[in-house]
Structures are given as structure tokens and as C-alpha cells.
Amino acid sequence: MLALQFETFDGEYVRRLTEGDPGAGDHFASYFGNLLRMKLRMRLRSREAIQDVLQTTLLRVLEILREGRGVRNPERFGAFVNAVCENVLREHLRAERRYDASDGKTEEPADPSIDLDAGLVNADRKQAIAEVLAALPERDRQLLRALFLEEADKKVLCARFRIAPDYLRVLQHRAKAHFRDAYSARGASL
Asked: Rounded to the nearest 10 degrees, how much is the dihedral formed by the CA atoms of 116, 119, 120, 121?
């Protein structure tokens, strides 16, 4: 079994670490890396998660020190690093639970506002409309296509059919009636 060697820390060590001393930084990463890795193995499943929490913890400790919000009692530096690790671990576990909640195995409830047959019904209806239009007299077919499918301007239609605007309404009414009768005769409903 591996015997742990706990170290004591002083103000000089924390100062050197805060100032970016390479020797202190190497010792910090090595010493706390080993201790925290052992702790995290008990709580996390994957090596990637352990490494993420470990790196985040070490980085956060260094950021806190360099921002001047450092440690009040250098002799408690180990407890400070451990507390930061606990916070990072909680954040990680919280985020993991949030993403694990929807593992993709559960079916989402059906949306009653979506009609799955609408595409088929619309395709059938379009086919029926095309057949009825083809059976109408040429003038009615052209007028209904221009009005409802092309959405042509009524002034343009009056010029195309060489009729007065008032008479366009009469022709439109008749063409719609012919269409309705032919569509109903097919046994379909609008």
C-alpha cells in the first residue's frame, strides 16, 4: 500500500506559487495532482472526467491566487485546494446529471397539433383539384388558375380576358360554382 506524505505549507510557498515560480508550480501540480486524482477516482467513472476536474481545480486555485483573493492562512493551503476541488466536482456532477437526463431512450410524447396524415391528404386533394380543373371549360380553368394558383392581379386579368372589372366578379362566381359542382360530383368535399 502506498504511504501518503502530507506536507505543510507556509506563506513563502503560497507567495512563490502566486508569483509563478516554476519550481513551486511543478511541486503544486505533482503533489496535489496525485492527492486529488486518488480522491476523484472514488467519485468519477471515467479517466477523462477525472482529468477534467483535476485540471480545472488546479487552474482555478492558481487563478484565485493570482487575482489576489488567495489564502488567508497558508498553513491551511491543502484544505483550500481540497475545497476548490469539491466545488469543481459538484459543478461537474451537476452538469453530468443535466445531460444524462435525456439519454435518448425515452420516446417523446406525440404532439397532437401535428397531423401525420396531412401530407397524404394534401397530396390526394391536390390530385383531385388538378383532375377537376382539367375537366372544366378552358375559360373557367384559366380564370381559376390565374386567380387562386398564380394570384394574378385583377386588373391584369381584366386585360387578359378583355372584360370589365364588374364582369370579372360574375365570371369568377360562375367558375367557382362549376368547380364546386364538379368536385362534389367526384365524391370529395372541400
From this structure: 100
User: Do 58 and 28 form a contact (C-beta atoms < 8 A)?
Assistant: yes
On whether both 60 and 124 belong to a single domain, the answer is no
Q: How far apart are CA 169 and CA 97, in angstroms?
A: 66
Whether the Cβ atoms of residue 79 and residue 22 lie closer than 8 Å to each other: no
One domain, residues 23 and 86: yes
Amino acid (one-letter) located at 190: L
Distance CA 5, CA 28 (A): 14
In angstroms, the CA 163 to CA 177 distance is: 19
71-128 pLDDT, tens per residue? 888 888 888 999 999 999 999 999 888 776 555 566 666 666 666 666 666 777 788 8
Tell me the CA distances in angstroms from 55 to 43, 77, 178, 187, one per residue in order: 16, 17, 78, 73
Q: Please tell me the distance from the alpha carbon of residue 69 to that of residue 77, in angstroms, as a whole number.
A: 13
